[in-house]
């Protein structure tokens, strides 16, 4: 049975919920990269629902037995690929929250900017679009999505908390977590309904508003 892990690794690196052997040598890292690249290519061709371990191994040029040295099952491979996308977006998140906010309007503007960046990032990544949609039916990916939302909320909280009285920080933190997870869900919905994507994102922005944040300003 795979081992479950419920926390982030050092420096916010997402930790797999399935026990995975971390590659230490360059040859092993190259093999893991080849496996993930093969998984990515097959998702583009067939979707994640049609993935088979044997096909991933064949595309990567490794044996199934060799692949199991690094990943205990197909879910672990998909999780590892999803983590790479999530960690890549964290670079965008980091640049947006690098400077402290000036005021409440700046805070709202940057939260809306993050939502736009989040959507644009995943719109350009057909593989992760597939994984986001698949998350609705995959408990492991759901858990990873929640973990990612918590991390993103922590980063946003750190850059805007000084605008608010300290006694309201716990409630603000919870609100931001809900916002981050709502953004993830909204992106999934917008990607599934491209004709309505603009209105979906705009409606989420109405929820993440100055009025919503003003509730946490009272001393």
In short:
67% of the residues lie in helices and 0% in strands.
Mean pLDDT: 84
Query: How many separate domains?
Result: 2
Number of strands: 0
Q: What's the helix count?
A: 10
N- and C-termini, Cα separation: 50 Å
Task: Write the CATH fold name of the largest domain.
Answer: Tetracycline Repressor, domain 2
Query: Largest sheet, described in full?
Result: none
Layout of SSEs?
Blueprint lengths: L25 H21 L6 H8 L3 H4 L6 H23 L7 H20 L2 H9 L4 H22 L8 H24 L4 H11 L2 H5 L5
Helix pairs in contact: 1-2, 1-4, 4-5, 4-7, 5-8, 7-8, 8-9
Protein name: HTH tetR-type domain-containing protein
Organism: Microbulbifer agarilyticus
GO molecular function: DNA-binding transcription factor activity; transcription cis-regulatory region binding
Task: Please describe what this structure looks like.
Keywords: DNA-binding, Transcription, Transcription regulation. By secondary structure, this protein is an all-alpha fold. The chain is built from 10 helices and no strands. The chain is elongated. The N terminus is likely disordered.
Task: Name the descriptors.
219 residues, mainly alpha, Arc Repressor Mutant, subunit A, Tetracycline Repressor, domain 2, elongated, disordered N terminus, transcription cis-regulatory region binding
